[in-house]
Amino acid sequence: MVAKSNKQPTVCVIGLGYMGLPTAALFATHGYKVTGYDVDKRKIASLAKGEVYLDEPGLKELVEKSLKAKTLTPSSKIVQSDVYVIAVPTPLHETAQRSELKFVILAAGAIAGVLKKGDLVILESTVPPKTSEKMMIPILESSGLTAGIDFGVSHCPERAIPGNTMHELINNDRVIGALDDASAKKTKKLYESFSHGHIHLTDLTTAETVKLMENTFRDLNIALANEFAKISEQIGISVWEAIHLANHHPRVKILQPGPGVGGHCLAVDPWFLTEDSIDARLIRAAREINDSMPAHVVGHAEQMLDGINHPKVAILGAAYKPNVDDSRESPSTRILELAKKRGWQVGVHDPHVIHYAHDLIPLDDALKGADLMILATHHDAYRDLTPDYVRGLMRACQVLDTRNYIEPEIWRNAGFNVRVLGRGQVGS
Ligand code: SAJ
Fold this sequence. Notes:
Blueprint: E1 11-14, H1 20-28, E2 34-37, H2 41-48, H3 59-68, E3 72-75, E4 83-86, H4 102-112, E5 120-123, H5 131-141, E6 152-155, H6 165-171, E7 174-178, H7 181-192, E8 199-203, H8 204-235, H9 239-246, H10 269-274, H11 281-304, E9 312-316, H12 331-341, E10 345-349, H13 363-367, E11 372-375, H14 387-391, E12 398-401, H15 408-413, E13 417-420
Helix pairs in contact: 1-3, 4-5, 8-11, 11-12
């Protein structure tokens, strides 16, 4: 049984990344004293100066407010608190299609060092089923305390979409998996402080699985759209029009094809769900289809560049989706690597991304002398690109649109060779 107290518990959020910082700021503006911990000292130093390093609508204001009110304290060490919220990355393993849980292990180990009776540990990071029960609780119990008797444990996976994080954190329903009723009650009370969504209670392992199922559902639906795109190219129709028409059926909601699925979630979570399963053929096939899309795009590019000596390609967009600064698992990176492998000169531009594994250059430099412009990410900033402007910079006037973003007829009438992914009738 977790000890009862009327005092507002203090909260320590471990990991101030895409979800940790927004969550810390929400607790800190809804009645809790929060310590925000991160291993990255630069993040802590930025926050201490009042600088917010994430580009999420509404986040800056909340962080500034809580820093000013001193309800959020950035810290380079885990401070003893009543509640610990683990929001660390859970990436794919470097060498296998399975989870890398070292950051959760480190966080749980550090918490075990300061854990006391009556505390609550909430895992927010996305993890494979049974991680809380089989991995996290034993580490926490190395403190000498017993889960469910001395301290509470719950899993409250975040379900907000990057680019609209604050709105979704506040308004989406929440699923809380808890070890026991006391943990469930305490966790619900915490999240109710800022959440307008319904809070659904379940056990730890179900909550872990629900989160993975949600992202797998989306990944699978996008794989279907991508397979439809490839088939439509062969048939000679536009997949975009076909999907639009099919979606008028009351029970059909096909997602959009594209150059592949990026980001830290959809490209990763289905592997977490299947890592110990022998019965997951469909999920694995969907992952493979989505992972095949960058090569499919480069195949189109290869045909369009046929006969051009020392081709130069401009890739527009390094982020994994429009209007965000996140390039993790971005299909653009894979397109870039495959293009370089073919010996093409490549210039990449992105108006939002700041930290990228490759060079980013100004738009004009990327387009200057290029033989093909690949629109990889449909940022709003690219809306204003006109054929007249682009023609003045490029060597060969060719566009490959992977997002059905441009008006092909306008560009064709201006003398461009245009291909749109999934549009079979158009082409070279
Ligand atoms: N994409 C397509 N076609 C589509 C939709 C998306 O190709 O029709 C691509 C995007 O371009 C991008 C990738 O999929 O490369 C993922 O983007 P996304 O916007 O679908 O999702 P994420 O990864 O930004 O956020 C997802 C969300 N999950 C679901 O919608 C089920 C979010 O709610 C989760 O909180 C997040 O994963 C997470 O953190 O798990």
